[in-house]
Amino acid sequence: MARKKIKSKDKHILALSTLVNHPSAILYEKEDLIAYDCDGFTIHKATPKAVVFPENTEQVAKIVKYCHDHSLPFLARGAGTGLSGGAIPLNGEVIISMVKMKKLLSVDLENRRAVVEPGFVNLKLTNTISDKGYYYAPDPSSQYCCTIGGNVAENAGGAHCLKYGVTTNHILGLEVVLPNGDVIEIGKNGIADEPGYDLLGLITGSEGTLGIVTKITVRILKNPESKQTVLAYFDKVEDGSQAVSDIISAGIVPAALEMMDKTAIEGVEAAAFPVGHPKDIEALLLIEVDGIEAGIGEQIEQILQVCRNQNVREVRAAKDEQERAAWWANRKTGFGAMGAISPDYLVQDGVIPRSKLPEVLSKINKISEESGLRIANIFHAGDGNLHPLVLFDARIPGETEKAMEAGSACLKVCADVGGTITGEHGVGIEKREEMRFVFKDEEIQAQTDIRDVFNPDNLLNAGKLFPTPGRCAEVKKEMKAAAIS
Ligand SMILES: Cc1cc2nc3c(=O)[nH]c(=O)nc-3n(C[C@H](O)[C@H](O)[C@H](O)COP(=O)(O)OP(=O)(O)OC[C@H]3O[C@@H](n4cnc5c(N)ncnc54)[C@H](O)[C@@H]3O)c2cc1C
Fold first, then answer.
1. Where do the FAD-binding PCMH-type domain residues begin and end (predicted)?
2. Four-point Cα dihedral 81, 87, 90, 91, nearest 10
């Protein structure tokens, strides 16, 4: 096929266009680049230099090597659903989009693993293997469109991660293009527990700052024999929170244990998947148990009783699979549903010890009152992963900044009760400064030192994950000076 002539005169665009093998595999014109100026964190925007669409590891490696050799900043992008700004081209990066690398390379049912390219969409894996009785456990609410490469970078979680663990617990091997263009394989043959440093653990959750993942071996699980879901409505948040603690203390390990507060319920009921939740309750719980058929009934009875002991207004198990699916669609589309009650919203992602739920929720209410902004709460209550959603209107001058301040204040509350600033959405650019809520300068320095080993020129996804360098650089200098003297 004749190559489409590249109109740009920029020598880097011309060179990069020769490293991908399809005429439409590079975007460089202003109007095309607008779609790549942010991800799911829409408050901050920046224009990339170009977007390239490689089709295999070799092309990724060549693009990375070119960027490295010519000191061009670059970053990887999956589906762009990240909520902390990890894929935003802060420094006018060359974006390396993984969307053309979307093949399911192999499925090995006997050894319960599958190999995918990074642009493979999360839910497609379960959809492809479910008829054979298997599924892929990490289930972020964005799973219908986010990529497994993006999940690895963010160490994504989901409703069912309470029982099954987050992405890192399901990754057996990775192929990674390092920031100089070298290609390495870790977890060879899908054997995760290799001798030496745990590089799989290091790369997973490194937010695209250590390398670009080009192949992923994941663990797949056998479908549970049976599952059942309970819905419980509470007039007091404290009662709902206590029920969460009591379920876990009773020795039950639900597959999922989710909570929504009154404002969140108003949102999901006004959006695309209403199920008729009463709007005057203060909290609802969605509790799912799974496992062998014989044990499910007993667990459901125990859960119903725990909720009754906590003054539940109404509690019942789903009458059939259709109702169960409707409850989950209502919950899983919860973030987007905020668009039905507010022009803009900011998703936060704090983690707290479960026992602190009532205290933290009351402090978040106080932040809402003081800021004058409504805050909805939708969260993975079972593992204490809160998602305060700050509702605001970006058209009102100053309101975006106010929302950012309120979001940050929510994270401070989480850190102060012994929790942390992100459970699954990552730090990105959004929570860089909040890293100081949980780490001392020396601890941040230890992490940036690791980044510098992989990414010494900091050309890959610079400006993410860590606070502005000033103070850390000073600490480093002080430490060096102390060592010399
Ligand atoms: C409505 C909604 C609901 C969500 N629900 C959840 C949830 O329940 N749980 C959860 O954990 N998250 C959730 N998210 C956040 C988001 O979907 C996840 O962080 C997801 O893992 C991002 O995947 P992506 O393909 O969109 O990655 P992107 O947004 O494109 O990229 C995210 C980061 O990963 C890096 N990256 C992407 N691909 C690669 C690669 N191949 N190699 C190296 N780095 C790479 C990017 O540079 C960036 O830093 C939600 C988002 C939305 C919009």
1. 44-223
2. -150
Same structural domain, 60 and 83: yes
In the prediction, which pLDDT does 481 show?
A: 43
- Nearest residue CA, atom 13 of ligand 1? 140
Check residue 21 and give its pLDDT.
80
Confidence at residue 321, expressed as pLDDT on a 0 to 100 scale: 95
CATH number, position 329: 3.30.70.2190
Per the listing, tokens 């669409």 go with: 53
- Which residue's C-alpha comes closest to atom 19 of ligand 1? 82
**What residues line ligand 1, using a CB cutoff of 6 Å?**
39-40, 75-83, 86-87, 98, 118, 140-142, 146-147, 149-151, 153-154, 156-158, 207-208, 212-213, 335-336, 424-425, 461
- Closest listed residue to residue 174, CA positions, set 128, 218, 123, 127: 218
Q: What stretches in the chain show pLDDT beneath 70?
A: 1-4, 189-193, 470-485
Burial (CB count within 10 angstroms: exposed 0-12, middle 13-18, buried 19+), residue 2: exposed
> Measured from the CA of 176, which atom of ligand 1 is nearest?
42
What is the CB-side half-sphere exposure of residue 296 using CA atoms within 13 A? 16
| Residues 229 and 201 occupy one common structural domain | no
